[in-house]
Amino acid sequence: MYEFNYHRPTSLDEARKILGDNDEAKLLAGGMTLLPTMKMRLASPSDLVDLSNIEGLADISDSGDAIEIGAMVCHAEVAASDVVRAAIPALSDLADSIGDAQVRNRGTIGGSVANSDPAADYPAAVLGLNAVVKTDRREISADDYFKALFETALEPGEIVISVRFAKPERAAYSKFPNPASRYAVVGVMVAETAEGIRVAVTGAAACAYRVTAMEDALSKDFSAGALEGIAVDAADLLSDLHASAEYRAHLVGVMARRAVRQLIA
Amino acid sequence: MSINVSFTLNGEAVSAHVASRTLLVEMIRERFGRTGTHVGCDTSQCGACVIHVDGRSVKSCTMLAAQADGTEIVTIEGVAKNGQLHPMQEAFREHHGLQCGFCTPGMIMSALDLVKQNPDPSEKEIREWLEGNLCRCTGYHNIVRAIKAGADSMRVG
User: Fold this and answer.
1) Alpha carbon A67 to chain centroid, angstroms
2) pLDDT digits over B64-77, tens only?
3) Is residue A111 exposed (0-12), middle (13-18) or buried (19+ Cβ within 10 Å)?
4) What ranges do the domains of chain A cover?
5) B156: confidence class by pLDDT, cuts 50, 70, 90
6) pLDDT at A5
7) I need a surface site. Which of A73, A189, A242, B123 has the fewest CB within 10 A?
């Protein structure tokens, strides 16, 4: 790891000032991706701005029709939260399936969403549940948020404050984990929300995306059978040593049907 | 850039002046000589470096020393009390929950976090919890037995 300047601001204003003064500064949340990346020298920020001492970023609240999870809430806290479990059990289960216990004790929802790893779990929840990413300057709807590989709508220096999830009628997440890392080879969130059925996929493509053909089919007939025969195009999907694009395309269908079966059972 | 870090290490208030890029595990081993915390993979996969920070198990190879400022840290050296092995350590000895022993400190620190949350874990729950702890001797059967027995004796107190 190359040397850097370490900062631990106590306010968002202070964090913004450090970011503004240093082009090559990066925000540090749980560090579960950033620190290994720096150790491999794939990233070498001039400054790290540790968000852990800023008040108000680590709360979970329920406003009646939605829950809001602070950016610095770790996966283990989401998984153990009674508020989350009561409102969106699929989100609790998703958080509990990330990495291993020690990663869940450090990794945060804000870090995951800001990083937008193609194989991360949270992007499927954010997009599938039609969540809103709240930053220090605006609110970004899930459909506008995920852009490309490790690329989101966040602007340089923009800080994720929380993620707000409207409570769905029902939702389920089904994941085919890489057996070593527990990253999603493919993960699918199926949700019945106030705006209709949503089917969001992570792990398969450069970033999380929705499968509208499946959403339309499930809107007419909410059954695993309704998804039979819906072809998933492998053309834009990822291919690596863990799974070919064709296999990932196949898994999107399998995971979507499993999620639907969970909801019907 | 170098920084001052102050924290509690196994009940003792300590501080150190370290380079900002110093990893927590490096500081614990090299500055404080607590070498029971091991570095296996150095890529947050193997769990040989698991310690407790503010009561939660974490991989100390993937945390900066700087992030430990103001925290309470417990390493494997802080588990035994008054010269008596902790019941979990005793269970690892009794059930031969180790072969070469390299992964053992991390296994025990991880197990203690599990038992704190789930005082009576099933074999399946123990195995799932150990996702982040690798034993290259592949001695998992006895490790799982040891954790089950350790949890039992901790409940009895």
Assistant:
1) 15
2) 999 999 999 999 99
3) buried
4) 1-55, 174-264
5) confident
6) 98
7) B123
CATH architecture, range A1-55: 2-Layer Sandwich (3.30)
Residue B1 pLDDT exceeds 90: no
- B-chain CB neighbours of A3 within 8 Å are 1, 19-21
For residue A91, the model assigns a pLDDT of 98
A206 lies within 8 A of chain B by CB: no
pLDDT confidence of residue A50: 98
Do A28 and A49 contact (CB within 8 A), yes or no?
yes
Cα A145–chain centre separation? 11
Could you tell me the fold of the domain covering A174-264? Enolase-like; domain 1 (3.30.390)
The 3-state DSSP class for residue A260 equals: helix
Q: Classify residue B78 as left (phi > 0), alpha (psi -120 to 50) or beta.
A: alpha
- Answer yes or no: do A36 and B58 touch at CB < 8 A: no
Work out how many CB contacts closer than 8 A connect A with B: 77
CA–CA gap between residue A35 and residue A46 (Å, rounded): 13
Residue with structure tokens 């999870």? A69
Residue A16, chain B, CB below 8 Å: the answer is no
Instruction: Delineate the domains of chain B, giving CATH numbers in brackets.
Output: 2-78 (3.10.20.30), 87-156 (1.10.150.120)
Within 13 Å, how many C-alpha atoms sit on residue A113's CB side? 34
Which residue has 């208030």 as its token pair? B13
Q: Does A102 touch chain B (CB under 8 A)?
A: yes
Low-confidence ranges of chain A (pLDDT < 70): none
Nearest chain B alpha carbon to A182 = B131
